[in-house]
Design brief:
255 residues, mainly beta, Immunoglobulin-like, 2 domains, five-stranded mixed β-sheet
Length: 255
Amino acid sequence: MAGLGLLIVVAALCCGAQAIGYYTIVAPRVLRPNTEYHVAVSTLGVSEPTTVVVAVGGKQDSGGTFRTSQFVTVEPYVSRIVKLEIGDVGPGSYNLTAEGSGGMNFINSTELEYIHKSYSVFIQTDKAIYKPGHKVQFRAVVLNSHLKPSVTAALDIHITDGKGNRVKQWNRALTTRGVFSGELELSKNPVLGDWNITVNVLDQEFHKGFHVAEYVLPKFEVIVDVPKHATFKDSKVVATIRSKYTYGRPVKGVF
């Protein structure tokens, strides 16, 4: 389950002379800032409700401490979801702690993995290759950790040319329903090569490249016609190869 990013705790406790109770805790193994952290708690094999206090806390590398907690009453054979608001916490060492009392007494603490990434940005351009004088149109789609459009974070965006020169930038740009749209008019004599769009959101950088080149019309094209379907029973697959110049005249060749 570690590959799915889940942390699962299953434990058995003796609750009486003959009874054995079980509790399970399911939560993400990864802790991200500015997210809502969900923990599922359930108990089995007990006859009374259990009060469970769930907390996430630890020490930040900057020297401060962080802790958020919430309690929930868990009926036997029923799962309850605890939602913890994780604010703008920095890198550090954090633990998930669950403590039960009443129907079952237990305490369990497990280390969490901190990952700074709390947003994903997908950058799209209207074309992959541009000629001098063309207009570059692009958009950046910002998603939060739940893959929903984010409208809370401002963006810092800049475009660099093939030599790394910054040619245009947008500071503290706001999105419309999680989408920012921009454009850049290329000059008649731009720097040719690989250009780059960089989007920064909360110190996380995302990149998208595109190419600027003088377009040269190809001298000829080659078309290969093959059957849409073929099976292993066919001993041969027949293909037709055609080639012609851009002005329509066939290209002579040999096989």
